[in-house]
Specification:
The complex is a heterodimer of chains A (158) and B (647).
Chain A: H1 2-11, E1 18-19, E2 34-35, H2 39-51, H3 58-61, H4 69-78, H5 81-85, H6 107-115, H7 131-143
Chain B: E1 18-19, E2 36-37, H1 72-82, E3 87-90, H2 97-106, E4 113-116, H3 120-134, E5 139-143, H4 146-160, E6 166-171, H5 182-185, E7 201-203, H6 208-222, E8 230-235, H7 236-240, H8 264-276, E9 280-284, H9 291-304, E10 307-310, H10 329-335, E11 338-342, H11 347-350, E12 352-356, E13 360-364, E14 371-376, E15 397-400, H12 403-417, H13 420-448, H14 459-470, E16 475-477, H15 487-491, H16 512-524, E17 529-535, H17 536-539, H18 545-551, E18 557-561, H19 567-579, H20 600-606, E19 610-615, H21 621-633, E20 638-642
Parallel strand pairs in B: 3-4, 3-5, 5-6, 6-8, 7-8, 9-10, 9-11, 11-14, 14-15, 16-17, 17-18, 18-20, 19-20
Antiparallel strand pairs in B: 1-2, 12-13
Helix pairs in contact in B: 1-2, 1-6, 3-4, 3-16, 8-12, 9-12, 14-21
Classes of the chains: A mainly alpha (158), B alpha/beta (647).
């Protein structure tokens, strides 16, 4: 548990702070509040469940499916991910959707959350979004380059 | 809307041989009316009041009398001028043709000056935006039926936002005085009924003296917190019946009520809780009605060294103040031992999360034992039908009173209680909060860098480019920042009250463009640069406001946030599709504005407004805004269409 906790903590950039805001149906009272929720804790609960039990074939987990970033970019738009997360996964406080790339969380975390989100996010079951689609979206998110720091963009320092 | 007029020879009855004095309400008359004989030798007689038994007797037609020196609407304009309205916003309507003509001729079309609107929703929303800058209402006019129906949503927004709007409706209450046809469709027995659930007060005066008293009373009621729209119905006969030019009628003196203050004992109790708190949090929503409210909140927060979370119902607290912790809101609320809510519209929502899935559920986010204090004028006037009063919040101390007015006594009470030990603890707290504030600012800048070069343009880039062009000017952001994820509050330096005016209040879309125009109208005389980040869907409700801004030379820089959709509903329908695991690619049906794409630049130009765009390359945005700014600095509106990310 400690090892997982440390590993996940390392991957949790500010990107994964939940912003309690105006996702569909969300209370609008604190539109800018950052919800520093126990996303880590939630995933930590999910991870053991995902990893426990007999090993499942790669096709079911999607963990070893090769993803196509170009296809993933199209699905990211057509299937509505961009609506809350932005077209480059940058997130938006108004929707409460966090930044999901770059860099994205581990694939198994990503997949688990998309299938069964714990908060406001609409669920995407395998019926409408295959594991291959997920792998493609993930490849797209991984392909987005990291931006410079805000302090290095003069327009952001007025 | 302007209604078609069918003329009939018996349209108006005039007293035979007389231009009569004012109608009933004899107490309001300083001097009795003088009836002017149309023919020499004809005896003068007092005209019967319109609602008296005598008025039931039909007065013979007098087709010879076609002109009169003065009508009741002239006196109505005397009353209107006594109330100090700068402008009157209206789409013309024949049911108030009397007041209209009196304003532009008898009144000289100044104070108030007639602002021509293409939709009553625009008239009211202009008044809504204006009032939040100027601190007082505009006059608006509308038909008592079709006009007020058009205006209804805008009135609701102003009501929810607690903003004063003064609306006069035209109507013909006496059915024998209506031309057959359209005037019957446009007449109503109770004109204000359609909006009574979301206005504060209304009246149908039946004499000019009554009109005068009700107009002054209505203004006073509108301006007493909680402020809300008020309605007067100006009967067309009262407007158009002649009055003697010699008659002097009394206009009551206007004395505004002092805003209600919180009970001193309760304020003292609040001060105790706040001074003793380890992690006090102040929630500010519609706190700063005026610049005084901004200054008082700064003093209160600094005295306590307390976190302030600005919920942006108004410009409440400087964005770069070290105690501004708005970016950390939820987390701080969860750790707070005392939470003070100052005119917070939704206190329940501020201290709960609410999950909108199949099972909708709320969860409290406050820690056990946290004390909740509310100071608000909301409870002083609540109506039952429309549910804008939000879910019932469980608070420990509920102080009914205007927050801005109560703050001075709260500050004094706090100061009296601070010991040297508490002062030292507060200073330590303040130092830590300052560090957190700086960290939040750096994190916001880092977050803004993501999707920096994206096309469509990110809302962060849009707001940063815009600020880069205006930050040295005396700017005023006259639009809500909700749909651009509040990037201005996170990146710009807000420190003046007029730099932000909040949002629609009732979330009625269509508020944006006209409210920005009304606020810009208020800003014009101060030489401020008004800036509007304009949602595309909002613009499409009543785009005629663009013509109004061009015609009246209202300088306003509009930068489109054009995501080509009613995007909130795109997300709502997406949620439904996902819930059913079906049609997840169909959420754009019925929610997007595509095929064809609307050209907002051409729309603007068609109405006399400078337009450029659409801009989809972020590198072109700065120069385009600069070009538009040159137009605005010449005193005219300008629009730049920008293709943007959704939020």
């Amino acid at each position: 548990m400690n090892k997982i906790h440390t590993a996940c903590k390392h991957m949790f950039s500010p990107a994964l702070r939940f912003l309690g805001a105006e996702a569909p149906g969300f209370s609008a009272a604190l539109p800018r509040a950052r919800f520093v929720m126990a996303f880590a804790a939630a995933i930590l609960f999910a991870l053991p469940a995902a990893q426990a039990g007999p090993a499942r074939p790669a096709a079911q987990t999607g963990a070893k499916l090769a993803g196509n970033a170009q296809k993933g970019k199209k699905i990211f738009v057509s299937d509505g991910c961009y609506e809350c997360h932005g077209r480059e996964g940058q997130g938006a406080t108004q929707t409460g959707a966090p930044r999901i790339g770059p860099p994205p969380v581990p694939f198994v975390v990503f997949q688990s959350f998309v299938r069964k989100p714990i908060n406001e996010m609409p669920p995407y079951t395998a019926k409408v979004l295959s594991n291959q689609d997920l792998a493609d979206i993930y490849a797209f998110l991984k392909s987005i380059p990291m931006p410079p720091k805000g302090k290095d963009i003069p327009l952001l320092n007025k | 809307m302007a209604k078609q007029k069918k003329l009939a020879v018996d349209r108006r009855n005039f007293l035979k041989g007389a231009a009569a004095g004012a109608a009933a309400g004899a107490a309001a008359l300083a001097v009795g009316p003088a009836a002017v004989a149309a023919k020499a030798g004809e005896p003068r007689r007092m005209p019967p009041p319109p609602m008296s038994a005598e008025a039931e007797i039909e007065i013979p037609l007098s087709p010879d009398v076609l002109t009169v020196d003065r009508s009741g609407s002239d006196f109505m304009v005397d009353v209107i001028k006594s109330l100090g309205f700068e402008y009157v916003c209206a789409n013309p309507g024949s049911s108030f043709r009397g007041i209209h003509e009196s304003i532009i001729n008898y009144g000289g079309n100044e104070k108030p000056e007639f602002i021509t609107c293409c939709h009553e929703e625009s008239s009211i929303a202009m008044a809504h935006g204006y009032a939040k800058i100027e601190g007082k209402p505009l006059l608006t006019l509308a038909h008592g039926t079709v006009g007020v129906q058009h205006a209804a949503m805008a009135i609701y927004n102003a009501y929810c936002d607690r903003v004063p709007v003064f609306l006069i409706l035209g109507n013909i209450i006496n059915e024998t005085k209506r031309v057959p046809g359209v005037e019957w469709d446009h007449s109503v027995q109770d004109a204000a009924s359609v909006v009574r659930d979301f206005t504060k007060w209304d009246d149908l005066p039946i004499s000019l003296g009554h009109f005068a008293e009700s107009a002054v009373r209505a203004y006073k009621i509108a301006m007493t917190p909680p402020m809300m729209p008020v309605v007067l119905v100006a009967d067309a006969e009262l407007q158009e019946n002649p009055i003697s030019p010699d008659v002097k009628m009394h206009i009551p003196k206007l004395t505004l009520a002092t805003p209600p203050q919180g009970d001193s004992g309760a304020v003292a109790e609040a001060a105790h809780l706040l001074v003793a708190a380890e992690n006090p949090v102040i929630l500010a929503d519609r706190t700063a009605r005026t610049p005084a409210g901004l200054a008082r909140l700064i003093e209160l927060a600094e005295t306590l060294q307390a976190s302030v979370i600005d919920l942006t119902g108004r410009m409440n607290f400087p964005s770069r103040h070290p105690l501004n912790q708005s970016d950390r809101g939820r987390g701080l609320v969860a750790q707070a031992d005392v939470i003070l809510a100052l005119e917070v519209a939704d206190f329940y929502g501020a201290v709960h999360t609410y999950r909108d899935q199949v099972d909708r559920e709320a969860k409290s986010i406050t820690m056990p034992g946290a004390k909740l204090i509310s100071i608000s004028s909301n409870d002083l006037y609540i109506k039952a039908n429309y549910q804008d009063f939000q879910r019932y919040p469980e608070v420990d101390l509920d102080i009914a009173g205007d927050a801005e007015e109560t703050m001075p006594s709260l500050i004094e009470a706090v100061k009296r209680l601070i010991t040297s030990d508490r002062r030292s603890a507060m200073q330590d707290r303040g130092a830590k909060l300052a560090v957190e504030h700086q960290r939040s600012l750096e994190q916001a800048r880092d977050a803004a860098a993501f999707a920096w070069d994206a096309s469509p343009i990110s809302t962060a880039r849009l707001c940063a480019e815009l600020y880069g062009q205006i930050y040295k000017e005396d700017w005023s952001l006259v639009s809500a920042t909700t749909f651009v994820s509040h990037w201005p509050q996170r990146l710009w330096n807000f420190d003046k009250h007029y730099q932000y005016i909040g949002a629609a209040g009732g979330y009625g879309i269509g508020y944006g463009a006209p409210a920005a125009t009304g606020a810009a109208l208020a800003n014009r005389k101060y030489g401020r640069l008004s800036v509007n980040i304009q949602n595309d869907g909002d613009m499409m409700y009543a785009p005629g406001i663009l013509w109004t801004s061009a015609h009246h030379k209202i300088p306003l820089l509009t930068v489109m946030h054009n995501n080509r959709a009613y995007h909130q509903e795109v997300m709502q329908v997406q949620l439904m599709a996902d819930r059913h695991s079906r049609g997840i690619t169909n959420a754009g049906t019925g929610t997007t504005l595509l095929s064809p794409n609307i050209s907002y630049a051409k729309l603007a130009e068609s109405m006399g407004v400078y337009g450029e765009g659409p801009i989809s390359d972020p590198k072109e945005l700065g120069p385009a805004i600069r070009r538009a700014l040159e137009v605005v600095k010449r005193g005219e509106p300008a629009l730049v269409d920008v293709l943007t990310q959704p939020r």
